[in-house]
Write a structure and sequence with these properties.
- Helices cover about 60% and strands about 10% of the residues.
- By secondary structure, the chain is α/β, with parallel strands linked by helices.
- It has two domains: about 10-65 and about 210-300, no CATH class; about 90-190.
- Helix 4 (about 90-105) packs parallel to helix 6.
Length: about 300
């Protein structure tokens, strides 16, 4: 099933009228005794309180999917349903791939230096990672099983070599990394396919709980760290499902640094309310998705005479 963002103007929804009315009430429903002597900071505080209330309501208006780590969560009003969005085999592949990368990082030291005790102990810890038994590898296809075993065996052999020499030499380290690079790329490709398959299954399972109308209004939040935003697996998957271009973020958005599902959902309320305000005041639904002062700053700085720092 492929879902596309419909052509409807979402600014027409009834909740938008309530949202704008709520913001207005945030200014007018101040107690009389405060309004008489209210300063600008107090008015600003009242705005943020009203904005927060309306944002919270807006985030619950339509169903939202939140991808947080390995779990895809469907939030529909007060209803919450979790779906596992990862493949168990991926953990095995990642663990194997992390061993050579970890060894390389541990040996990031001055060239031709002696192996100190702390580094030796770290290498011994990495060496304790065992090659999985045959039964543990059954969840992998034959080629992936062979690559997992190959990576671990070559990593163990290199660790033994370094421990025996007692030296951190750049050339053997570079050869080790270069030889395993293609294998790690194959494992990464396989892990990615497994994760996409798992996310696709979880998404379709969640969609079966929604009506056709709810699917038309569905929005998605992918939570993660800053570095993952541009090429996030989850972002790419849902952009493909909704037919959105990268950076468009109409119904698929990224919650940078969100630590829980409800925090990620609040971003939807923020976006919905901001779009309503932006259309009403500026005729541009994306105007508040960038820094409010940004456009003016661009125009002013274009003609500013500033001394270069470098």
């Amino acid at each position: 099933m492929r879902i596309y963002g419909g052509g409807e103007d979402k600014m027409r929804r009834p909740w938008v009228l309530l949202a704008l009315a709520g913001v207005a009430l945030g200014f007018t429903a101040v107690r009389r005794r405060r309004a008489t002597n209210a300063g600008l900071p107090e008015l600003d505080e009242q705005f943020h309180e009203a904005y927060g209330r309306v944002r919270s309501v807006a985030s619950r208006t339509d169903p939202v999917l939140v991808l947080l780590g390995d779990v895809l969560v469907l939030l529909d009003g007060e209803r919450r349903r979790e779906h596992l969005a990862t493949a168990p085999a991926t953990a095995l592949i990642k663990a194997a791939a992390h061993v050579p990368v970890g060894v390389f990082a541990i040996l990031e030291q001055p060239a031709d230096s002696s192996l100190d005790e702390a580094t030796r102990q770290h290498l011994l810890q990495m060496r304790r990672v065992k090659v999985p038994a045959a039964g543990q590898l059954d969840q992998l296809d034959a080629d992936t099983r062979a690559d997992v075993v190959d990576v671990l065996q070559r990593s163990h052999a290199f660790i033994d070599e370094v421990l025996a020499s007692g030296q951190v030499l750049p050339e053997p380290r570079s050869r080790f990394a270069g030889a395993l690079g293609p294998v790690l790329l194959r494992l990464s490709e396989r892990a990615t396919q497994l994760e996409l398959d798992a996310l696709h299954a979880a998404t379709d399972e969640a969609l079966r709980e929604l009506t056709s109308e709810q699917r038309r209004t569905l929005e998605v939040v992918v939570a993660g760290v800053h570095q993952a935003r541009a090429r996030s697996l989850g972002m790419q998957y849902f952009q493909k499902r909704f037919g959105e271009r990268p950076g468009e973020e109409k119904r698929v958005t990224y919650a940078e640094g969100a630590e829980d599902v409800l925090e990620a959902r609040e971003l939807i309320g923020t976006r919905r309310l901001d779009r309503a305000i932006a259309v009403a005041f500026f005729g541009d639904p994306k105007r508040l998705q960038r820094d409010v002062l940004g456009d003016a700053a661009t125009r002013i700085l274009e003609h500013a005479d500033l001394t270069p720092l470098a």
